[in-house]
Design goal:
Blueprint (H helix, E strand, L loop, with lengths): L2 E5 L3 H13 L3 E5 L5 H8 L3 E5 L7 H10 L8 E5 L4 H9 L4 E4 L4 H17 L5 E4 L2 E4 L4 E4 L2 E2 L4 H12 L5 E2 H9 L9 H13 L6 E4 L3 E4 L7 E3 L2
Parallel strand pairs: 1-2, 1-3, 3-4, 4-5
Antiparallel strand pairs: 6-7, 6-13, 7-8, 8-9, 10-12, 11-12
Helix pairs in contact: 1-5, 6-7, 6-8
Length: 234
């Protein structure tokens, strides 16, 4: 059983999400005010947070920034709920490290499937040890990434995405492959989530971001002159 924290000031939506989470075998805690999120998260340590952007007390984006700024909560996956008119907030949220988003109105079943996919993927991250290539060192056991010995702070999703790319530097990963491996999607859904995370990952890598190469019409590749990445089994 996983613990899901739902933050939405519309009781009908919270109740609907909670009902579907219970059917999926998850424990669900519901909140209505953004100011309650940090204390509740620290107390209950949820496995995933469903966060609406329009909240009283403290809006969802500010709440999300607080979660990501605290080392005790920064790696908890977050799915954002947004209105159709909140396109800019949605993009900003993904750039800041949100794991996924849904636009209201949404299908509770789709939300449940996305939650399951994220939980499945985040729990896999800790089972493999490390990947090394050139000046890059990715420690999957401890979820740490280093370039030239210096740590680079990545979100859980950015870390998983980079790990998939680095595991085989000779391979070109299609969009469908990456969406399946990182987000757990079963097909090539129409989403800009991948592109947004690639952009954010390159920004964090700085000059080294050039090694994350776009293969036009296909997908992405981690490409460099160093020897093929060596995967060390756990």
């Amino acid at each position: 059983m996983s613990k899901i924290l739902v933050v939405d000031d519309e009781p009908d939506i919270s109740e609907l999400i909670s009902l579907h989470m219970l059917r999926e075998g998850h424990e669900c805690l519901c909140l209505m005010n953004g100011l309650e999120v940090m204390p509740a998260t620290l107390e209950h340590q949820p496995d995933l947070i469903v966060l609406d952007l329009m909240l009283p007390g403290l809006d969802g984006m500010s709440t999300f920034k607080r979660l990501r700024a605290d080392s005790r909560t920064r790696n908890i996956p977050v799915i954002m709920l947004t209105a159709k008119t909140q396109t800019t907030d949605r993009i900003n949220g993904l750039e800041l490290g949100a794991d996924d988003y849904l636009t209201k109105p949404f299908s509770p079943r789709e939300l449940a499937l996305r939650i399951t996919a994220i939980l499945r993927r985040t729990k896999k991250v800790t089972h493999i040890s490390e990947v090394k290539t050139g000046d890059f060192h990715l420690d999957r056991k401890n979820m740490k990434f280093f370039h030239k010995g210096q740590p680079i702070d990545l979100t859980t999703t950015e870390f998983k995405l980079l790990a998939v790319l680095m595991e085989n530097t000779s391979a070109v990963h299609t969009r469908a492959d990456l969406l399946r491996e990182v987000w757990g999607y079963s097909d090539d859904v129409a989403t800009r989530t991948l592109d947004t995370h690639i952009k954010r990952l390159r920004e964090k890598l700085g000059e080294a971001g050039k090694h994350v190469v776009t293969v036009r019409g296909t997908g992405y590749q981690f490409c460099m002159d160093a020897p093929t990445a060596v995967a060390v089994a756990a």
